[in-house]
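Figure 3 (text version): structure tokens given as input.
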């Protein structure tokens, strides 16, 4: 399945408490359980005013449906084509 990165504009995201983030995660996971295995949340990165989420999904529509059901913004959704990291460097 394709992997996607979702950019969510959430004013003050970096100021959310651990309890608020836990509540958001619980809500998201409940929706994902109901949607079935065609969409999976891998991880999210919280910055000052944005949350960047990594999902595996059949398509962008599944991500939009999850966002709509949860009341989460999905301001930008991009399909990930390639992942690189320090191990990608040349061995020569």
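Below: residues designed for each position.
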């Amino acid at each position: 399945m394709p992997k996607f990165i979702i950019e969510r504009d959430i004013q003050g995201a970096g100021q959310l408490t651990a309890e608020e983030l836990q509540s958001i995660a619980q809500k998201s996971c409940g929706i994902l359980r109901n949607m079935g295995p065609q969409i999976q949340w891998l991880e999210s990165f919280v910055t000052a005013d944005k949350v960047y989420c990594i999902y595996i999904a059949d398509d962008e529509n599944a991500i939009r449906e999850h966002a709509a059901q949860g009341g989460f913004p999905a301001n930008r959704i991009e399909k990930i084509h390639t992942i690189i990291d320090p191990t990608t460097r040349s061995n020569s």
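Strands lie at 3-9, 39-46, 50-57, 76-80.
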